[in-house]
């Protein structure tokens, strides 16, 4: 976008004004308030759980832990300004220590509660990976530990960052952005040749400086690397690019939310024109059922779908041999997406998904290379941004 930069960004600027006018709509609450919790508050929550267990034991009763069900759509409600949030009246799972099917999980939760209590009390932090390798006898996999930590966060009604447990990030970020990490390290994302790993402590980031006009969420690492190789951050400058390398981890989602809260610039998503890509975009925008209890700090309802749109495939006459027939699994996922509560609030998204359903084809972003090798970076994205080609 070399000529008349101000003109090129006029549609982006208009979008920003519209979103700023609606910004008060995003001030809702999730199950717990989006705030920092004191050390005393966190310790009191954990002590409350332990006290209930001790009380049960004193009555010769088997201790039971009550954990909200994080896998049921019946437990979430949709709010256009927040996304998917856990309902205040939600179904729960009772984990009994005297039941063979849940005794192990009960022990796992109590062990991790003790680890968290020690971390908070000493004001220190540990990664999920560190905790797993210190307790391999108790946990069959890293994933099982991760689920326990999220269950504890939901049970205590505390954001995961308050538990002093950090996760190693898989996401990458690049572009017009500088900030300070919690330890005082200055991070500069403006290198054109390499991206920066997303921080593992997003809440500790301060002093964010950027003149970016927009943030571009890129679904896949391969596309992100191609854009870096094509010097897209310079050609589309000033902007910020971020990828969660597929289904985004919590840190990538927290980072996108942090950028929105700090910069209030449009967030645009570039995903494959397939059901999987659409679902990933929906996670950034509206959240997921599993993390609905922390919706307020994870969702960015202002996210816009820049591409690849199913309508783009027809408009650009992408060669048929670059299109892929929908599988049965794709069709099932697409039907599921169309039934989700947020689709009704996005009629343009619904039209795009129905077009995919009718055409019975999908396409990866790389399919644009069949038109011209540099089509994505030099033609598709600049024109989309210049003429407001998002929905």
Structure description:
It is a single chain. With 391 residues, the protein is of the alpha/beta class. The chain is 42% helix and 15% strand. The chain is built from 15 helices and 17 strands. The chain has helices spanning 5-8, 10-21, 39-58, 103-121, 128-134, 142-156, 221-229, 232-235, 250-263, 275-286, 295-298, 310-315, 328-338, 347-359, 375-387; strands spanning 64-68, 76-79, 83-86, 92-96, 126-127, 165-166, 172-175, 178-180, 186-188, 196-197, 206-209, 214-218, 239-243, 267-270, 304-307, 324-325, 361-362. The strands form six sheets. It has a six-stranded mixed beta sheet with strand order 10-7-13-12-14-15. Strands 9-8-11 form a three-stranded antiparallel beta sheet, with no helix packed on it. The protein has a two-stranded antiparallel ribbon with strand order 1-4. β2 and β3 form a beta hairpin. α3 runs antiparallel to α4. The protein is globular and about 70 Å long.
In short:
The protein has 391 residues and is an alpha/beta fold. The chain has helices at residues 5-8, 10-21, 39-58, 103-121, 128-134, 142-156, 221-229, 232-235, 250-263, 275-286, 295-298, 310-315, 328-338, 347-359, 375-387; strands at 64-68, 76-79, 83-86, 92-96, 126-127, 165-166, 172-175, 178-180, 186-188, 196-197, 206-209, 214-218, 239-243, 267-270, 304-307, 324-325, 361-362. It has a six-stranded mixed sheet with strand order 10-7-13-12-14-15. The chain has a three-stranded antiparallel sheet with strand order 9-8-11, with no helix packed on it. A two-stranded antiparallel ribbon has the order 1-4.
